[in-house]
Amino acid sequence: MKYDFLIIGAGLFGSVFAYEAKKRNKTCIVIDKRSHKGGNIYCENVEGINVHKYGAHIFHTNDKKIWDYVNQFADFNQYINSPIAFAKGNFYNLPFNMNTFYQLWGTKTPIEAQRKINEQKAIFGKENPANLEEQAISLVGKDIYEILIKEYTEKQWGRKASELPSFIIKRLPVRFTFDNNYFNDRYQGIPIGGYNTIIDNLLKDIEVKTETDFFSNREYFENIANKIVFTGQIDEFFDYQFGALEYRSLRFEHENRDIENYQGNAVINYNDAKYPFTRIIEHKHFEFGNQKHTIITKEYPEQWTIGKEAYYPINNEENQQKFEKYKVLAQQQKNVIFGGRLAEFRYYDMHQIIASALKKIKKEFNEN
Ligand code: UDP
């Protein structure tokens, strides 16, 4: 018997697609080369603490439909992401808000802060910012750019801020209220029981094979289903024929500490270039844990090379042009659906992945 769908990748995109296809009475098999389901939202429970093995994930969305959707699979706690930045020896609140402006300049009112930023914009800002550096200075001025953005960004992406696309920095809110919520979205939280609960519920009653690599047995896998949903790297799917797209890789160092509270916050960014990691995550704080011990993770950005884990797509002009060529090939593949961060070469958050998977399902089943 042939399956209706072979889904390559048991991450959030593949799991939502599988769940929805099954709901429509289709048969699915999901394979993943890793030893577990969940892709990068996978958590490992270590003595009661859910460790975000592939970096911090905080669910947030403004879309009630997506919020209701994800709440079918888990309840969420009231966690609000309020990361702190440690830069040049001081702590600053994020995202850039009245607390940050006060810590930087001593400005006490929105008018004073706005004036300060406008002064800096007038001197250094550009009317049509062409890259991340120009965009950042135009948004928040030169001081914030130099203290909180430049070094962090260049270490995170391994490139000069002037060579990066501006949309990356537009993700961060800038506000003139004393509000440290990192997101502007209406809904936010961490799933109770961890992210694995969502994946387990999505993939309940669906055949899943881990430690199974599509590329090591491609011909076999191409023949076991009528259609393929591919969530891996699009360039690898096409044998890198136009050259490899570029990604940023990450390395995580997890440490078990025999103290109750290491840093007092789930996320502290280390913005200075002299630290080789970008942030330290203390996992228990995502779930208000009161264990006697704690687990922290240092996140080190790394250069990506073929074969290494690809985390962030580098959406600069050169890669975008290459990606467009792969996209043309993808469109010619009538029996393959490409989806997710790696196949669509996009900087997706979880809520966007769910929206994208639901959209592709509707298209596949000719629904409106
Ligand atoms: N960023 C920064 N300083 C910070 C936090 C973020 O310059 O303290 C910039 C950096 O370029 C980063 C981007 O903002 O890549 C997006 O940050 P976000 O926290 O959304 O990144 P993610 O959590 O997706 O890695």
TrEMBL record:
<protein>
    <submittedName>
        <fullName>UDP-galactopyranose mutase</fullName>
        <ecNumber>5.4.99.9</ecNumber>
    </submittedName>
</protein>
<comment type="similarity">
    <text>Belongs to the UDP-galactopyranose/dTDP-fucopyranose mutase family.</text>
</comment>
<feature type="domain" description="UDP-galactopyranose mutase C-terminal">
    <location>
        <begin position="148"/>
        <end position="347"/>
    </location>
</feature>
<dbReference type="InterPro" id="IPR004379">
    <property type="entry name" value="UDP-GALP_mutase"/>
</dbReference>
<keyword id="KW-0274">FAD</keyword>
<keyword id="KW-0413">Isomerase</keyword>
<dbReference type="GO" id="GO:0008767">
    <property type="term" value="F:UDP-galactopyranose mutase activity"/>
</dbReference>
<dbReference type="Pfam" id="PF13450">
    <property type="entry name" value="NAD_binding_8"/>
</dbReference>
<dbReference type="InterPro" id="IPR015899">
    <property type="entry name" value="UDP-GalPyranose_mutase_C"/>
</dbReference>
<dbReference type="Pfam" id="PF03275">
    <property type="entry name" value="GLF"/>
</dbReference>
<keyword id="KW-0285">Flavoprotein</keyword>
